[in-house]
Amino acid sequence: MQATSARSVSAALPVAERVAGAPISWGACEVPGWGVMPSPDVVLGEMAELGIRGTELGAPGFLPADPESLAETLRRHGLTLVGGFVPLVLHERGLEQAIEETRRAAGLMSEAGGEMLVLAAVQDTDWGAPQELDDDGWANLAEHLSAIEALAGDEYGMGVALHPHVGTLIETAAQVQRAVEVVDVGWCLDTGHLLIGGTDPVRFAREHGDRVNHVHLKDVDAALAADVRANRRSLLSATRDGLFTALGTGDAQIAEVMNALQVHGYQGWLVLEQDTAITGDEPTVAGGPMRDARESIAFLHHTARTTEEINR
């Protein structure tokens, strides 16, 4: 199936107009004990200052939970709502709870201009330890994802992107491959979570780029990623020690991923999502998240220029 995004059907847009941010790049995360929760106005203001055009919704409660207030907050900073991350229980027989959560999330985001529901398949609503799915579980997952996609599109005009993610039912290389085989919806290519789970993000982009309808760009320290994959340390511990790095400084081969996506004609959002945990004082604009985001944006622009020169 050829997946599309709201932006991929229009004329090609330069990278500068497709870069979005994720609040977790500034440390905004709902996980208890993660770190300092930054001010939304600081985060959105710094995104705008960097020339970032859009943002994902971020952690529950970080941005307003009613569409009018959310839209006004984003307008104040000149940002577009890209969409947001939604964890759902999809492998069980019943789908009522997942439908209810989809309606809540899509209702908020679509009224504020959001385009994409970025879905993760979780074991339960408390993010319990994932258990390997049997054939029935995979069949339920595939069927329910298609139902959620139809609901999101028909009732809210939103797309759906499946997000492989640490701590979910689609994390390891084997699980990603099985999902590719049985699931029909589009994919969120998250370079960091793919690599941590053992999937080569470049190979995924080359082989399945036609199914990618959303992109999260992370660069990753491969040694720390291996520790997370082997359960030698938690994602939070590794994040605090520098698991996620500025684009171009880690091991996720971001330039090669970008080239592969261009070959497949991807023209959707490029979301900078470098998970950050702030454990001391909130950083100033001179360092921390804004510094890394600025370096990452410069890398993306350089990569785009280089690709254009090669393809002339």
Number of strands: 10
Gyration radius over CA: 18 Å
- For the residues shown, what is the average pLDDT? 91
Low-confidence spans: pLDDT under 50, at least 5 residues? Answer: 1-11
Largest sheet: 8 strands, parallel, barrel
Query: How much of the residues is beta strand, in percent?
Result: 5-15%
Q: Helix- and strand-based class?
A: alpha/beta
Alpha-carbon distance between the two ends: 30 Å
Helix percent reads 40-55%
Strand order across the biggest sheet? 1-2-3-4-5-6-7-10
- Count of discrete alpha- or pi-helical segments spanning 4 or more residues: 11
Order of helices and strands: EHEHEHEHEHEHHEEHHEHEH
Shape: globular
Concise structural overview:
The chain is α/β, with parallel strands linked by helices and 312 residues long. It has helices at residues 40-49, 67-76, 96-111, 135-156, 173-182, 191-197, 201-208, 222-229, 235-240, 254-263, 289-311, and strands spanning 19-21, 54-56, 80-88, 116-121, 159-162, 186-190, 212-217, 219-220, 244-245, 270-272.
What does this structure look like?
The protein is an alpha/beta fold and 312 residues long. The chain is built from eleven helices and ten strands. The protein has helices spanning 40-49, 67-76, 96-111, 135-156, 173-182, 191-197, 201-208, 222-229, 235-240, 254-263, 289-311; strands spanning 19-21, 54-56, 80-88, 116-121, 159-162, 186-190, 212-217, 219-220, 244-245, 270-272. An eight-stranded parallel β-barrel has the order 1-2-3-4-5-6-7-10, surrounded by six helices. A two-stranded antiparallel ribbon has the order 8-9. Helix 2 (67-76) packs across helix 3. The longest helix is centred in the last third of the chain and has 23 residues, at 289-311. The two termini are 30 Å apart.
